User: Fold this.
Amino acid sequence: MKYLIIADIHSNLEAFQAVLDDVRLNHGGFDRVWCLGDVVGYGPDPSACIKLLRELKHICVCGNHDLAAVGKLDIEDFNSNAAMANLWTAEQLSEDEKEFLRILPESVVEDEFTIVHGSPRMPVWEYITSAFSAAANFKHFKTRYCLVGHTHVPCYFKQDEILVEEGYLEEEETLELGETRLMINPGGVGQPRDRDPRASYAVYDSEKKMISHYRISYDIGVTQEKMEELGLPRFLSSRLGWGV
Ligand code: ZN
Assistant:
């Protein structure tokens, strides 16, 4: 089985579509999608992104933006740009789309993986940004591997006997899955924050026991124009071009 691992689509249809095209055309396709949350928030196409995800065989956990869009999280916990985009997102969604988001689980176990948005300890909110925060989280999941999103930065954390080793996931880098426990972040599809504006994602091949990381460029200008026309905060469209 091949699993497409995506996180933080953030209502960016162009980036989402580019990822699907790239994995199908250049990396052997996939059988199922594992989506690590934040399907909506920030970008201009929340409904279209939900629709596209639902057309695929998928598992999805909830992110903080997904919950805020349906009133399950307090918008006051967001910065002003994120809150503004979130209020706008909530207005766009149909009842059916809201229900889809409302019932997303916080965490799912599939194969040898625990799948969450933020961290296994605090699935919705915690950012795993360092070996230090990763180390505290290894005891909060029982599977050998854990997939996280939320930071929009592709990386991995390996649990060695004493230390946790961390690494940035380079383009085309492959992680071989063995005995070592790992936490892996595929990076962000719709709003990367590692100074590389290209969409970021990963593919898990369960037969080869490998996770490969890929980047693909998309037409950022199209997404930015939509955001401008809709009156979404200028900073949110600019940052797509910077990859921050
Ligand atoms: Zn996010």
Residues 8, 10, 38, 63, 65, 150, 152 surround zinc ion (CB under 6 Å). The mean pLDDT is 96.
